[in-house]
Structure formats: C-alpha cells, structure tokens
Amino acid sequence: MIIHPKNKNFLKQFIELPIQIYRDDPNWVSPLVGGDISNFNPSRGPNSYISNQLFLAVSDSRPVGRIALFVDKLYNKIHKEKTAFFGFFECENNPDTALELLCAVEDSARKMGFSKLIGPVDYSTNYQAGLLVQGFSRPTVMTPYNKDYYQALIEGAGYAKVMDLYSYIFTKDTPIPDRARRIQDIIRKKRPSLSVISLSKIPASKKAAILAKIYNQAFSDLWGFVPMTNGEFSHLVKNLSRLSHTDLNYVALNNRNPVGILLTVPDIYSGKEIPAQYISGNVNKLEEKLTKLRLTVLGVIPEFRGKGIETLMGLQALEDSLNKGFETVEFSVILENNIAMNNLINREFGLPIDKIFRVYEKQL
Question: What ranges do the domains of the chain cover?
Fold first, then answer.
C-alpha cells in the first residue's frame, strides 16, 4: 500500500527508512540531506522553485519503501520539456514494491501533465543525482550510495539509462604528470593575464554573485543544466565559511575578470562519524582532521576553454590540498559526455573511473 506521509509520524517513517534498509551495510553513511523534516519543505530552503510529493510503501503497517516526486520549474522552462524527477528512492529487495512506488510517482506526474520521468535525482540536477552502479565502497560527501539490487529494481520497472556520471580518485601517491607541469609553466609564461586566486580573497559581498555567474555560463551547454541562483550559492558560501574551507575553492581571472571556478568540500563522510552539529547547520569548525576532499565543480566560461585554465586550477587545488594534509581528492561527479573534462583527467592525470552513477528516464 502507498501512503502520502503528510503528518509528522508518516514523515518520520519516510526519513528513517534508510536506517532499516542499511542496518547491516558497513559502507552506508547517514546522508547530510534527507535526514531532517525541513529538507522536504522546499519553501524553507534556497531552492524554492522546486516542489515535491512524498510516497511511502507500507506492508503490514511496516514501511518497506519510499520515493519522492520533484517538479523543477526552471528545468522545464529552460529545456522546454514536461519532465518530472524522482529521488530519495529506497526499497527492500522486492520488485513488486519498487514497481508500486515508481508507478505511484508516474501516475502523479502524468496527472500533472508531465510526459517524462527522470531519476534518481534528489531535488534537481544541481544536487545529488544518479544511482550507484559501480564502485560500492563508502560514499564521499553528497554522492549517492545505494544497494546493488536497486539497478535491477529500477530497470525492471521499464527505466532506461539516459546518462552516466563518473568519479575519479587522486591520492597523495598519485604522481602529477610532467605534461601537466609543462602546461602550467607554458600558461604562466604565455598568458600572464591569467591567474588563479582563492575564494577567500574575494570580498564576501561578491562571492555568491561571481560563483553563480561563472557556473551558469560554464555549464549551460551540459546535459541536465539548471541555473543556480545567487541564493543557492550564498547558502553554499555560508556553509564553506562555517567550515573554514573557502581557501581551497578558487576563481580563475583574466585581467581581474572571473572566467572560471573550482569548488571543493571536505569529505565529512570520511570521518569517524558525521558531526550532528554539521547536519543541523550550527558547526563553526571541523573538530576532526579529515583526510579526504571532494572536488565538486570545475568550470570555465566557453570563450576561455581550451586555454589550459582547467589544468591551472586543478593543479593549484591538488597542490594546496596535499599541503594542507588531505591524502585523497575525489573528482566527482562528471557527465560521461563531458569529453573535455574526462579527457583532462584521463590524459593529464591517468586516473581510471572509480565509480559510476546512472540516471534513468521513462516516457510516461
């Protein structure tokens, strides 16, 4: 039976279901997003343009599965589509339950006039997206983790792959190739107008606007793009500042004009446990020294691509993070059709794909 968890008791069951699903899984980490009632009230967050519906599968009064339906108004406006998204999918290993959940969101999306469903996507494509289909190890902060049987459940319900996303791992023992060093030296000599500075050197009042402007220009031609608002970046900068982590985020300049960004987050999941105060948003600093970093965004505006800026920022981030004691840097997540970025990582650094996250779609 499918119910809509509207009151606090049902919503509590929806939120706590993963604890039951993953109780014997040593790799699972309680996620930062999706573990609080406020996470499912978009009007209270920076992404108020997204609406949602929640569905809970119950058997003999016991929750056995869940799913959320998301409507991203910006996505449909930009792509001129009638697409809805499903996310926060969790389910016991029962194809009938999975089918019931997916049919519930399909029926609801169809009634609202949508012709396609894409997922798993939590909120929008700017947030956590994809189903883990390769590399079932402990997740990095804000990347998907799920049971390996989820792939069969979703594909068995008639969903087909629309896009894969990759992650790569760079460790302190990974050598930085001579070619990358040479490119760095050539850029500095031939393009003295280019420079890379830490986000911490940007005035606080300008940080969010600069990040939003560059991000929205750099990624506008990629699959699933939805512009991020100044409010969303203000929220990000606030969290980074709380963690004292703005110095390992970068802006590339051409004659003082921003042309690229590189953003990282410390991997909270790599600690012994996730600080409760981080989840509640009250943390002022990290009490535990973390050794893993996640590189989340690396983008350059179109007219400055192919000039080596990506390599310049990437090397700066790697050198600075290693100097600060980080032992591992994960590049994630990167669209499989982002040829330039995948080539940069494969060719310049020789890194193999570590994990694959798959996004599915179904015509309604």
Answer: 2-164, 173-326
Structure tokens at 42: 């978009």
| Residue 84 backbone dihedrals phi, psi, to 5 degrees | -115, 165
Encode pLDDT of 159-185 as tens digits: 999 999 999 999 989 888 888 888 888
DSSP assignment of 178-216: HHHHHHHHHHHHH-TTEEEEEGGGS-HHHHHHHHHHHHH
- CATH superfamily membership of 173-326: Gcn5-related N-acetyltransferase (GNAT) (3.40.630.30)
Does domain 2-164 fall into CATH 3.40.630.30?
A: yes
pLDDT in tens, 238-276: 777 766 677 899 999 999 899 999 999 888 887 655 544
Instruction: Supply the pTM of this predicted model.
Output: 0.90
